[in-house]
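Bench notes, afternoon.
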Amino acid sequence: MASCAMGPDYSRPPIDTVERFRMTQTEGQSIANLPWWKLIDDPELQRLINQALAENKDLKQAVASVEELQARLSIARMDFLPQMEMDANAPAFGTLGGFGFPGFPTPFSYFGRANLNWEIDIWGRIRRSSEAAFADLMAREENRRAIVLTLVSSVAQSYFDLLQFDMQLDIAQNALRSWEESVALARAQLRGGLIPRLDLDQFEAERANAAARVAELVRQMAQKENELSVLLGKNPVSIQRGRSLPEQLVPPEVPPGLPSELLERRPDILQAEKALAAATARIGAAKAARFPKLSITGLLGVASPALSNLLLSGSQFGAGGLGLAGPLLNAQSLGFEQRAAEAQARQALAQYEQTILVAFREVEDALAAVRTANDQQKAQREQVDALRSALHVAELRYKGGITSYVDVLLAKRNLFAAENALTATRRLHLVSVVQLYKALGGGWSPG
């Protein structure tokens, strides 16, 4: 009878998965099989990630949480063993009163005794509780893995954000210098009566706008360094850079692997599945709690009204037998507990299915971003080259008095906007690869 357990046994719910991702371009082993340090080829970024893995406070909290669940699993498993308690008594104000049963303790006697209780797990309540505790531990371990993966990707993305700000700051400073040259030229032309005051005012407005953009980028850079410092587990400091944004290496191919692999690799899916397994086991524990508990009980000790006679012959007492305890007035309440456990299992199932849907969407989103990033960068580079040529021609024509300041203004605005957009796309390409790695549950290694 003890080999059986009430309630359903857990099995993974059937999940429909497609044969391949919709946005797949290349076949082969998933990039998620690579450890993160092989995906990221910037020594400075690798150093920052290693520091975050050692010092990040959220990760330390997750590790301690796993240790807590390990201890709670041990507590649950201890219910399989006999439980023994000991107590002793020494009356402080004499021994008034008698003994109802010679040799057995009363509050008016000296005694020491040990109580034994060993529940026979006929209905599987302890077994199901142990299963639930183990599943909780596995879910918390997957949560730790998810935090590691999120931490690695967050550090990488913040680092790429800083590299983007570096490039955009250079562009803004170049723009500021260019507008200052235009202002100086316009002032000279105004003194010579070659242009109206309106031209100078327009150039000075653009110079002021460029100066404001420089200040804004300095602020964004400082705030991003502060954000990254917290991920590293330390007070805000300046962050060292390694390779510049254009020097960052992107894998030539990013195969995602098979969709079915997500169910075995991605930590949030595994966490949701373990939560479902724990909820399923608690159904059995709640059902078993509605039935009587059979226990082996025992009592052994010594008692005497005088301390000097406590260890003499005749002071020993003991008893043993079987105990049976079952619900009466609270039976209906326990029935509701079972219904609540079943409802929690249905919630966990819905959460598991939703987690899988979100995972597939995130993979497809990242694949789409990676797939289009190269084409977008190529087109934007061509745009930047064309706009640089247009600006050069516009400046020559303006200096020669052939065209108005409006052509120069438009050419400069368009060029600086295109350069910023190209920088953002370069950053987007790198971040998309990192996001794809995260969406695929990267860092997992087979076997």
